[in-house]
Amino acid sequence: MATLEPISERNVWAFKTARLQALQDSPGAFGSTYAEESRFSDAEWLRRAANMSGERGIGFLAMDGELPCGIIGAFLSEHEPGIAQIVSMWVAPGYRRSGVGTALIDAIRSWSRTRGVHTLRLMVTSHNHAAMKFYERNGFTMTGKTEPYPNDPLIIEYEMAQCIPAEESHEVDPSSRSS
Ligand SMILES: CC(C)(COP(=O)(O)OP(=O)(O)OC[C@H]1O[C@@H](n2cnc3c(N)ncnc32)[C@H](O)[C@@H]1OP(=O)(O)O)[C@@H](O)C(=O)NCCC(=O)NCCS
């Protein structure tokens, strides 16, 4: 059973382990590559972990005890207020189809509500049908926007998005108050 932990400098080495495993396991799913990130210095991993617990970003690890088994990150758009981009979504093969990915998305939705985010966006590669099904199941739809995929000219990336409803109002109807 997985539990979620926010990513920070405190669990940076578990974050590194999970991220490198994700890049090896699913090379066509991400904009970056194992070859690129396996060369990162410790300082770079620490910088990335700090960004995922900073002003503009958040990240979560799914943990099975001491073992990382999933990741998600999200960053507020620099230029478009109210927009956040999901990155690095991954669940380890042995943990798939048991709700870990959905729990990670739910954690980002909760964060979004505290940060005034009205729209979550992400990019998914055109051959990644499993991820598209997963995102559709979790309320994302295609926006129609596409981009070239930097690691393979035969693949493109589709943008998907979902609206985040504002926090429910907790105002009490004055007429229902007892005196
Ligand atoms: C996509 C991914 C994150 C899904 O994680 P997960 O933990 O398996 O997802 P969940 O268990 O929460 O799945 C929720 C629902 O999404 C859909 N879904 C998930 N994986 C699916 C698949 N392989 N095929 C079809 N539907 C799928 C199902 O409706 C599922 O519900 P069900 O299991 O009751 O049928 C995981 O498969 C993964 O890490 N893939 C490799 C990396 C990747 O592609 N990342 C996305 C980068 S954009």
Detail the topology: elements first, then pairings.
Blueprint: E1 3-6, H1 12-25, H2 34-37, H3 42-51, E2 57-64, E3 67-76, E4 83-91, H4 100-114, E5 119-125, H5 129-137, E6 141-148, E7 156-163
Parallel strand pairs: 4-5
Antiparallel strand pairs: 1-2, 2-3, 3-4, 5-7, 6-7
The structure holds coenzyme A.
Coenzyme A (COA) binds at residues 26, 29, 89-91, 96-102, 124, 128, 130-131, 133-134, 137.
Question: Mind explaining what this structure looks like?
Answer:
With 179 residues, the chain is α+β, with helices and mostly antiparallel strands. It has one domain (3-166): Aminopeptidase. 29% of the residues lie in helices and 30% in strands. It has five helices and seven strands. The longest helix has 15 residues, at 100-114. Residues 168-179 have low confidence and may be disordered. Bound molecules: coenzyme A (COA). Coenzyme A is lined by residues 26, 29, 89-91, 96-102, 124, 128, 130-131, 133-134, 137.
Kindly summarize this structure in a few lines.
The chain has helices at about 10-25, 35, 40-50, 100-115, 130-135, and strands at about 5, 55-65, 65-75, 85-90, 120-125, 140-150, 155-165.
Helix share, percent: 25-40%
**Secondary structural class:** alpha+beta
CATH architecture: 3-Layer(aba) Sandwich
Cα radius of gyration in angstroms = 18 Å
Strand content: 25-35%
Q: Give a count of the beta strands, DSSP E runs of length 2 or more.
A: 7
User: In sequence order, what are the helices and strands, one letter per element?
Assistant: EHHHEEEHEHEE
CATH superfamily annotation: Gcn5-related N-acetyltransferase (GNAT)
How can the largest sheet be summarized? Answer: 7 strands, mixed
Low-confidence stretches: 168-179
Nearest-integer average pLDDT: 93
What name does the CATH topology carry?
Answer: Aminopeptidase
Count of helices?
5
Query: In whole angstroms, how far apart are the ends?
Result: 48 Å
- State the shape: globular
Oligomer: single chain
**Into how many domains do the coordinates divide?**
1
The CATH C-level name is: Alpha Beta
